[in-house]
Amino acid sequence: MYQFERRITAVIFDLDDTLIDWSGQEIHGAAIGQRHLRQVYTYLTAQGHALPDEEDFLDCFGEVLVRLWQQAKLTWAGVSLAQVIAQTLQESGLGAHQFDMDELLRVYNWQPVPGVRPYPDAIPTLQTLRQQGYKLGLITNAMQPMWMRDVELETYGLLPYLDARVTSGDTGYMKPHPAIYERVLNMLAIQPAQAVFVGDRPENDIAGANTAGLTSVLISPPHLNYELNGIKPDYAIERLSELLPILAGLEVRSG
Ligand SMILES: [Mg+2]
Asked: Which of 34, 61, 104, 203 is the most buried (most CB within 10 A)?
């Protein structure tokens, strides 16, 4: 009788356009954050702070957001929402004030983006992987703290399946920087060779997983078409359920 020794013990996912489908998003770009920043604006003006006109304040936020992400991508540093808000306040003339950033982040009141949904096979696939004994993780290049994105995961019913989760905003590094993969590998108490990483962006998800020593799986949802630019995923799939036979094939037969 053969025994199967499992080499892969964890599956780590990207979030956006991997577990959740942005093809139907009803709000785009900086407008996603601006609708939440309005609540911060209202809160600060109610406290008596002199702010620019609301639309100028929102425009400033949009500009700061783009600028800080562009700078961060030069070194794959992680931008945090707290940094973006602090810089926006500074450039709006409120730099000398001390703000309770945790409070401002609560007032920001992050919510799921209208029109975004989990892929239909996301929960069934996570359920099966969990039943098969895999540890599950998540790494997202997002400026929000993880607790904010957990609000979405909870709404979509994904939260209970994901044991270890990080955002680039919390970590200070974004994919493909190896440090963000190492963070989750440490949380899961595993080595890189024990993990599969699944994501949709070759230059972030796949290049990073390859460098960090994980087995990489590129998922290509129908509404996206990224160039590989020479980056080679170990596997390529079109839907999450295709992971199951790949993982079965990675089990090592011994004995
Ligand atoms: Mg993605």
From this structure: 61
205 three-state secondary structure? helix
Lowest mean pLDDT among 143-147, 152-156, 207-211, 220-224: 220-224
Alpha carbon of 106 to ligand 1 centroid (Å): 25
Query: CA–CA separation, 139 vs 134, rounded Å?
Result: 16
Please, what's the largest Cα pairwise distance for the chain?
76
Ligand 1 centroid, distance to 79 Cα (angstroms): 16
Distance 16 CA to ligand 1 centre (A): 4
pLDDT at 254: 53
Quickly state the pLDDT bin for 1 (edges 50, 70, 90). Answer: low
Residue 114's contacts (CB-CB under 8 Å, 6 or more residues apart) are 25, 26, 27
3-state SS class at 137: strand
The CATH number of 3-24+116-254, from 1.10.287.110, 3.30.300.130, 3.40.50.1000, 3.90.226.10, is: 3.40.50.1000
Q: Calculate how far, in angstroms, residue 236's C-alpha sits from the geometric centre of ligand 1.
A: 14
Instruction: List the chain domain ranges.
Output: 3-24+116-254, 30-108
